[in-house]
Design brief:
Elements lengths: L2 E4 L22 H10 L5 E4 L5 E10 L8 E9 L8 H15 L4 E7 L3 H9 L3 E6 L11 E7 L23
Parallel strand pairs: 4-5
Antiparallel strand pairs: 1-2, 2-3, 3-4, 5-7, 6-7
Length: about 180
């Protein structure tokens, strides 16, 4: 039985098995602690019955609460290779979407490598659309662009937040 629970500081000593995937961004300790301090409700792990971390999601709320850009953002979601294809990423995403709904967000967004077809397809199955292309998004790989994918939440009754943009943007153009 898998447990979904809040991320704890001591989890940083036990989640390296999840970050071994070359498509998973690994951040510095201060970055993880910043998310844990500012948006603890958005930082969740899935844990096996033996206590092993199977995957995690890290996100935040962004924008101005009263404006249509108020949204939940997925900074990272990843599952250890041995636990993939069990629906854990979908479970983590659903939980983040529920948190964003409770915060009265208009949408949830994320950035994904254009070359990561498995992830792009998964997000599409979860109801996300490609909102725009972000040129040279990944600093370590200037040839790799990203898709900014979005899913409208119930506050966005007209789905304005997910109407795709035609022209690509650069990272510095993202609000």
């Amino acid at each position: 039985m898998t447990t979904l629970r809040p991320f704890r500081c001591e989890d940083m000593f036990h989640f390296s098995n999840v970050n071994l995937d070359p498509l998973t961004e690994t951040y510095g300790l201060a970055f993880y602690l910043q998310y844990l301090a500012h948006w603890p409700e958005y930082f969740q792990v899935t844990e096996s019955p033996t206590g092993q971390i199977m995957g995690y999601i890290m996100g935040k709320a962004e924008g101005s609460v009263q404006q249509e850009e108020w949204h939940g953002h997925v900074t990272a979601v990843t599952v250890a290779p041995e636990y993939r294809r069990l629906g854990l990423a979908a479970k983590l995403m659903s939980n983040l979407e529920d948190i964003s709904e409770k915060k009265d967000a208009f949408f949830v967004d994320l950035f994904v490598r254009m070359s990561n077809n498995v992830a792009v397809d998964m997000y599409k199955q979860l109801g996300y659309v490609i909102y725009r292309r972000v040129l040279e998004y990944y600093s370590g790989d200037p040839d790799e662009d990203a898709f900014d994918m979005r899913k409208a939440l119930s506050r966005d009754k007209e789905n304005k937040s997910v109407i795709p943009l035609k022209d690509p943007v650069r990272p510095e153009d993202i609000e």
